[in-house]
């Protein structure tokens, strides 16, 4: 049984796979080791752990010691790579790319033989384009929804509002509306830009993952929701690396 871990900046997602079958999964927080409790019953069946993380080095080491308390199985951290099975990273310095982006892109590349856009709507939002030939054409990094809400709250003294999941993009008539509609309006504009780029680059599909995936679809993103794209790519890569 293999434990897959996607440790993002705010949340951690885990999944237990056994020969391609999902045995169990969960969500936790890096700072709160409670998530490990859900794994207790499986601990002695874990034969290996694969991790994709974009957390700081300090938190990565905390995670490593949490995992060492759970299991003595080997823990493998996977990072962005220059290339793999036909997918070519467009970064000149691949080590600088977040592992989550590479793993999501790899899963997308393996499940589609056409050009694809990969959108990860997490703490930060990332957009990456991959041509039909597997060339990473580049991407974008933007603040995520909670990050934008937080910055308005923290850095603008007179902006008091109640955040909502509103998808209304009409002009607001109160502070709360102006903020919530503004965030939806901004996201809808991003969705439009993604559609333009996809058309221009001749990509055939958009895959979206991350905590705000449904919100993007709600705002018009023409995409297939792939909830665990990072874990899917991580699973494929770890499997390939373990093969003799
Ligand atoms: N139960 C939830 N808890 C926290 N965030 C949630 C929840 N449900 C949806 N979200 C949304 O998900 C976003 C965070 O997404 P996600 O959990 O994919 O991020 P992450 O993997 O921690 O971050 P990243 O990978 O970008 O560093 C937030 O902006 C928030 O709006
Ligand atoms: C952009 C995030 C935060 C998205 O999770 C992550 O992929 C990351 O920390 N990336 C490092 C910078 C880069 O990808 O170029
Ligand atoms: K993520």
TrEMBL record:
One GO MF term: pantothenate kinase activity
Protein's job: Catalyzes the phosphorylation of pantothenate (Pan), the first step in CoA biosynthesis.
Residues reported in the UniProt entry to bind ATP: 6-13, 123
Membrane-spanning ranges: none
Pathway, per record: Cofactor biosynthesis; coenzyme A biosynthesis; CoA from (R)-pantothenate: step 1/5
InterPro entries the UniProt entry points to: ATPase_NBD, Type_III_PanK
Name the UniProt record assigns to this protein: Type III pantothenate kinase
Record-linked HAMAP family: Pantothen_kinase_3
One Pfam family of this chain: Pan_kinase
Organism from which the protein derives: Marinobacter qingdaonensis
NCBIfam families xrefs: baf
Superkingdom of the source species: Bacteria
Lineage: Bacteria, Pseudomonadati, Pseudomonadota, Gammaproteobacteria, Pseudomonadales
Residues at the active site: 100
Top-level class of the enzyme under EC nomenclature: transferase
Record's cofactor remark: A monovalent cation. Ammonium or potassium.
EC number of this enzyme: 2.7.1.33
Family of this protein: Belongs to the type III pantothenate kinase family.
Assembly, per entry: Homodimer.
Subcellular location per the Swiss-Prot or TrEMBL entry: Cytoplasm
Keyword annotations: ATP-binding, Coenzyme A biosynthesis, Cytoplasm, Kinase, Metal-binding, Nucleotide-binding, Potassium, Transferase
Chain positions recorded as K(+) binding sites: 120
Encoding gene, per UniProt annotation: coaX
Catalysis performed (reactions): (R)-pantothenate + ATP = (R)-4'-phosphopantothenate + ADP + H(+)
SUPFAM superfamilies reported in the protein's UniProt record: Actin-like ATPase domain (SSF53067)
Annotated positions binding substrate: 91, 98-101, 175
Gene3D superfamilies: 3.30.420.40
